[in-house]
Design goal:
Elements: H1 3-34, H2 40-73, H3 80-112, H4 120-167
């Protein structure tokens, strides 16, 4: 991966992190105020899920930044990369569960708040998004397996090179 690609991705991640901080510090309190008429059983979980969901995006962005730094240094094919990939998998899986919780919250509000109903299709759409996020977590898990194979091959190649150096 070229240096320009790593730098471009880091700029995009920096913008995304700044935007997520803006959402957490400015928009979430405004959403809290806007939901003033909503019952606490809906309002509190929704805002908590929103904050935690943004947190999963931030954690993922920071881990990707760390991996990009490892790519730039040429150390990505090491066991240290697994820690960041594992955290990314956990963050995506958590985002999937949080998205499903939003769907459950919408379905619950339909049963308990006749005036503020959420369209059943929207609840189904949010469940679909949750399923897609779970699929992304599984995809990253598969990519982690490929990384493990690459790390093993790299270690084997280094070992063979050292044996060849001894022979020569």
């Amino acid at each position: 991966m070229g240096g320009w690609a790593v730098r471009t991705l880091q700029v995009i991640l920096a913008i995304a992190l700044a935007g997520s901080l803006f959402v957490q510090c400015v928009l979430v309190p405004l959403i809290w105020i806007d939901m003033e008429d909503a019952r606490a059983v809906i309002r509190i979980p929704f805002v908590v899920i929103l904050v935690l969901g943004i947190g999963t995006l931030q954690v993922t962005a920071v881990c990707i930044w760390k991996l990009l730094t490892m790519v730039r240094r040429g150390t990505v094919f090491s066991h240290a990369a697994f820690r960041y990939v594992d955290i990314i998998i956990g963050a995506i899986a958590t985002a999937s569960v949080l998205t499903f919780a939003v769907a459950v919250l919408g379905a619950y509000s339909n049963r308990t708040s006749p005036g503020d109903q959420v369209a059943p299709g929207l609840v189904g759409l949010v469940c679909g998004v949750s399923l897609v996020l779970a699929g992304v977590a599984v995809l990253v898990l598969v990519m982690r397996t490929l990384l493990a194979q690459a790390v093993a091959r790299d270690a084997e190649a280094r070992h063979l090179r050292s044996e060849l150096d001894e022979v020569i």
